[in-house]
Amino acid sequence: MLKPIYNSITERKRSGKKSFAVLIDPDKVNNNNMGQLIALAVEAKVDYFFVGGSLVISNYLDECLQLIKKTCSIPTILFPGSPSQVSKYADALLYLSLISGRNPELLIGQHVVSAPAVKKSGLEIMPTGYMVVDGGAPTTVSYISNASPLPADKNEIAVCTAMAGEMLGMQLIYMDAGSGAKRPITESMIEQVSKAIQVPLIIGGGIIEPEKAYLNCKAGADVIVVGNAIEKDASLIREMAAAVHSVAVTV
Predict the structure, then answer these.
(1) Which tens digits make up the pLDDT trace of 142-198?
(2) How far, in Å, are 18, 34, 79, 106, 212 from residue 244 at the CA level?
(3) What are phi and psi of 205, to 5 degrees?
(4) pLDDT of residue 141
């Protein structure tokens, strides 16, 4: 099966280019504010839209994705909080396994249940090792997953977890401090994990300033994901994208 989205992520990594993704929670947007958000993203040359949330209690997921597809060509990647968050209108799906936790349901259990629907969806599937890192505040994902996050100051645990995920066949590693984190993931942890794995490294959670996005990229992040800060101030898209894309290409 062709994997155009994954290939674009890995090709950007190989060429030393950093990517910026805007995270959209369908529960927190509507047709009125989506227009401005999409326009800003196009202007800023955003690389990807990640769409999803820990709960998604509205019925706006399909409509949100259709609006993006109708308005621009930025690829849409589902970032699901549960197997029910699958939509045929997206381009790809992060098939998340919570490798930082010990909840078997989120390691494999829910995947078994969702596999037939996911297979039938026709989406590009990207197996992703999902690592929740302590961001200094309780997060929805930690509550829903009933799993403790990785300690923020234990780089060696993060490194070994990411290595294990890669060797188990995960095509992406996604480290997340959670929505509204008080403390984003440290550059030292990002740097050590990045050096230990070959697959693309995605970083999200608590990134509220362009400088932090820039420093994360310098440390080794391949994709920066920002959602909460943009929900509060959509104009940050310009500055965040510029910061990420300004990182010098080194190959």
Answers:
(1) 777 777 899 999 999 999 999 999 999 999 999 999 887 899 999 999 999 999 999
(2) 6, 22, 20, 31, 9
(3) 100, 115
(4) 74
Q: Residue 27, exposed/middle/buried by CB under 10 A (0-12, 13-18, 19+)?
A: middle
Residues with pLDDT less than 50, the chain: none
Q: What is the pTM of this model?
A: 0.96
Two tokens at 1?
A: 């099966």
For residue 128, give both structure tokens. Answer: 């992703």
Torsion of CA 147, 135, 154, 108, to 10 degrees: 30
Distance in angstroms between the alpha carbons of the first and the last residue of the chain: 28
Instruction: Give dist(CA 133, CA 153) in Å, integer.
Output: 9
Angstrom distance (rounded) from CA 34 to CA 236: 15
Question: Which residue type does 172 have?
Answer: L
Write the CB contacts of 143 (distance below 8 Å, at least 6 apart in sequence): none
Domains and CATH numbers, the chain: 4-243 (3.20.20.390)
Residues whose CB is less than 8 angstroms from the CB of residue 197 and which lie 6 or more positions away in sequence, other chains included: 162, 163, 166, 173
